[in-house]
Amino acid sequence: MSGRPSNRDERYDQVMQALVRCVARYGLDGASLSQIAKEAGLTRPLIRHHLGNRDELITTLQDYVLKCFSEQSDALVGVLPASGKSEHLIDLLFSDMNQTSPDMVLAFAALTARAVEDVSLRQACREALLSFETAIAAILRADFPKVDASKVNTTAHGIVALYFNATSLAPLEMPSVWKTQAEQAALALFNGLEHAS
């Protein structure tokens, strides 16, 4: 007779999502184990079991957020069509179907704020962001192989900045035209590459 199936993975996801929501709302210093437990609908000792002490909580958050960020970046690139990837990329980044959680972006921002005093965290966050920007630049470069690399890299940087700005400010419930304008700005950068080729 076998035992009851483990719900460890399900509990871990529940705890991590609650942690991300609390950090997005209260920052790293303001997210307490009690708040996380309440958000997750679990007991404080169970939260402590999953997250450990304060330093472990930050390391766990870092690992989770950067892993999710990497997986979402890979998934985004993976769904692009064989040709004309750049224009589809912009559509996906700024569409309402984009699955990037504003809470996740705000948790990433909280980690980057903490990175001022933590060299390894700073390096990990920087690598994640630069990896995303490099992936965007590679897509643009494939569509515009004759355009100068510095122009492609500048365009990728602008698109990534617009994307993070629009996503991180989503909790403000900006007027829909605001997101449309961010997408139009990204398309203007993209169109600059078309004119340069």
Describe it for me?
The chain is elongated. α1 crosses α4 (54-78) and α1 crosses α6 (102-114). The longest helix is centred in the middle third of the chain and has 25 residues, at 54-78. It is mainly α and 197 residues long. Helices cover 78% and strands 0% of the residues.
Q: What structural class is derived from the secondary structure elements? A: mainly alpha
- C-alpha Rg (nearest Å): 19 Å
For the largest beta-sheet, the strand count, sense and barrel status come to: none
Shape: elongated
Spatial separation of the terminal alpha carbons:
68 Å
The helical percent reads: over 70%
Total strands: 0
Number of alpha- plus pi-helical segments: 9
**Topology order in helix (H) and strand (E) letters:** HHHHHHHHH
Low-confidence stretches: 1-5
The averaged pLDDT comes out at 87
Strand content: under 5%
